[in-house]
Write a structure and sequence with these properties.
Elements (H helix, E strand, L loop, with lengths): L2 H28 L2 H11 L10 E7 L2 E8 L1 E3 L4 E2 L6 E2 L5 H13 L25 H5 L8 H7 L10 H9 L16 H15 L3 H10 L8 E2 L14 E4 L2 E4 L12 E3 L1 H13 L5 H7 L18 E5 L2 E10 L2 E8 L4 E7 L6 H12 L6 H6 L15 H5 L3 E5 L4 E8 L2 E5 L5 E6 L4 E4 L6 E5 L2 E5 L5 E7 L6 H4 L4 E5 L4 E8 L2 E6 L3 E9 L2 E6 L2 E8 L5 E7 L6 E5 L2
Antiparallel strand pairs: 1-2, 1-13, 3-4, 5-9, 6-9, 7-8, 10-11, 11-12, 12-13, 14-15, 14-21, 15-16, 16-17, 17-18, 18-19, 19-20, 20-21, 22-23, 22-29, 23-24, 24-25, 25-26, 26-27, 27-28, 28-29
Helix pairs in contact: 2-11, 3-7, 3-10
Length: about 575
């Protein structure tokens, strides 16, 4: 080999070595372990051993790079949170249930497009085909189990078994919407998925998960809690604060699939790592779990199979959070940076979502670019040129408008020749005419208010539209309220409510929930003040006599109660 060739080889080797060093230096700059640890300790410096607390894990390049614990797992015995502490992680459980279903699909034991009645014939037909996929991505239209339980008079610290939850789901006679027409987060779907896993495998759901996921991944401190009184080693209790005192928040639910996974930071890190190392499962499974679902109209809605898929400051993110009793949990993965963030909390008096954002900013600080921040800023709409309108023209827009999504009212009225958007407590904003039926609020930020027929649309500066319907406010007297009094029964919930009048106010009473008032909004339409008992619409027969009502909550619509006395 001549001298020139030797020199060329030497230079090439030096270039490769230098490139590798630069790559390593770059990686160290991007994930600065000492900086991140220091900032995390600073963030949690006020968390002491006299309060419930938090455990966190940061996974980087298939290793649990950071694990930190702050506060107590048990206040009664002053037991600190350690690296062995097991937390209830609530809805973070759902991705494990989805993974189990996909394992079964890979083994050709089921299909995501099968009707769920193939496996659970007890389900009502509803006149529609509900598939396993609909359960996985929350597009089934099935009413949510927690809303149903509350409406039926259950407290969420009651002992609630899987069979009791399933029995309630089986009794439902209607859907919130037609399958795959809408997205609505639904815990019932994942309870049904766990039942499908159990029936297909001919094992309990907890046992199937242990044998097919937890043992292969070495998640030795992880289990689904499906029986009352199960002993969980190193368990963290959950606590809420009242009058400067912490009280234990009892969680007795043993329904699995949607929730009830008990696990540790270390075990969750093994789960996060499996998405890249693939100890169990395969690329097809992970691809399906990470792919957004689509409605019949082709729109996506931010949810895949057991996980939310989105971006944070321009970086692709796959995540899920959970909350039960006073437990809070989070698992977020940034696949392009090979970083996962895990958070488990056993107290409700701290903002878990804020902590997740703070940790994410600390861990991915060097990955955020100015261009990404700019591209993720919201688009601000511009103001239009004002026009003149006399009071006669303005008067046609006056009235009361109701938002059915969030159950609140707004009044539009003229004051001193100016049209106003009126909120509670005299919080009023002038409306400036900018078109035939369009106004803008007199504020620095752009807010448009347009009127179409009997509807008002409020468009915020980022383009989000809030819809209101015009209505005539109710004006009930004690005598006119009498027609609503009596006993009502729902066979779907096996529950009775009694309506009565006290001091000219209509009250509902349940033997376990007690009395709570109903506020009249418009004719035959009231708003309840108790938990899931929110929207009450009374129904009449052809003679105008009240024969029942439908009640709706956030995730369970139009449960019918018949007047029985």
């Amino acid at each position: 080999m001549n001298y020139l060739n030797k020199l060329l080889i030497a230079c090439t080797c030096l270039l490769i070595f230098t490139t590798n060093l630069r790559s390593q230096d770059s990686e160290e700059n991007e994930f600065n372990l000492s900086r991140i640890v220091g900032e995390i300790d600073s963030l949690f410096k006020d968390y002491n051993l006299n309060k419930p607390g938090i455990a966190i894990g940061i996974v980087h390049q298939n290793e649990l790079a950071i694990q930190k614990e702050y506060g107590l797992a048990n206040l009664e015995h002053q037991i600190p949170i350690t690296d062995k502490t097991s937390f209830h992680v609530a809805s973070v459980s759902k991705q494990f249930t989805a993974f189990a279903i996909l394992l079964m699909e890979a083994e050709e034991k089921l299909s995501l497009d099968h009707n769920i009645r193939k496996y659970i014939p007890e389900m009502n037909e509803f006149g529609n085909n509900i598939t396993i996929r609909n359960l996985l991505n929350h597009t089934s239209g099935i009413k949510d189990q927690w809303n149903l339980l509350r409406l039926a008079g259950w407290r969420l610290d009651d002992i609630i078994s899987n069979n009791q939850v399933l029995d309630l789901i089986y009794k439902q006679q209607s859907l919130n919407f037609m399958p795959n027409e809408e997205y609505m987060y639904c815990n019932s779907g994942y309870t049904l998925l766990a039942e499908i896993v159990a029936r297909v495998s001919e094992k309990s759901f907890a046992e199937y998960m242990k044998q097919n996921i937890f043992i292969p991944l070495g998640m030795n401190n992880t289990q689904f809690v499906d029986k009352e009184g199960v002993v969980i080693n190193n368990k963290a209790n959950s606590y809420y604060k009242r009058d400067d005192q912490y009280l234990e928040d009892i969680f007795n639910n043993t329904s699995v699939g949607a929730t009830n996974l008990s696990t540790t930071i270390e075990d969750l890190s093994k789960w996060a790592i499996n998405f890249t190392k693939e100890t169990t499962g395969n690329e097809d499974i992970f691809q399906k779990m990470n792919t957004l679902g689509k409605l019949n109209n082709g729109d996506s809605f931010g949810y895949a199979l057991g996980q939310f898929v989105n971006t944070y400051k321009g970086l692709p993110r796959i995540e899920h959070s959970g909350m039960d009793a006073s437990y809070q949990a989070y698992l977020g993965r940034f696949p392009e940076q090979d970083i996962s963030i895990i958070v488990t909390i056993n107290r409700s008096d701290i903002n878990g979502a804020k902590i997740v954002r703070q940790l994410t900013d600390i861990c991915l600080q060097e990955y955020f670019s100015q261009e990404q921040s700019i591209s993720n800023s919201k688009t601000i709409l511009s103001h239009k040129k004002p026009i003149e309108k006399n009071t006669k023209e303005l008067a046609s827009f006056e009235g009361y408008y109701w938002n059915y999504n969030d159950n609140y009212s707004r009044q539009i009225a003229i004051l001193d020749d100016t049209l106003y958007y009126m909120r509670a407590n005299n919080d009023n904003t002038a409306l400036i005419p900018v078109g035939e039926n369009e106004f803008e609020m007199q504020t620095d930020e752009y807010t448009s208010v347009s009127f179409i027929s009997n509807q008002m649309n409020v468009t915020l500066d980022d383009g989000y539209v809030i819809v209101f319907d015009k209505y005539i406010p109710a004006n009930y007297t004690m005598n006119s309220l009498e027609e609503f009094t009596g006993n009502y029964f729902s066979p779907e919930l096996n529950a009775y409510y009694t309506f009565n009048i006290e001091e000219n106010i209509l009250y509902a009473n349940h033997q376990r929930l007690g009395n709570f008032n109903l506020t009249a909004v418009m004719k035959d339409y009231f708003i309840g003040s108790k938990g899931s008992f929110r929207e009450i619409s009374f129904h009449r027969n052809n003679l105008g006599k009240v024969i029942g009502f439908k009640v709706s909550s956030s995730r369970a619509k139009d449960i019918f109660f018949e007047k029985v006395k």
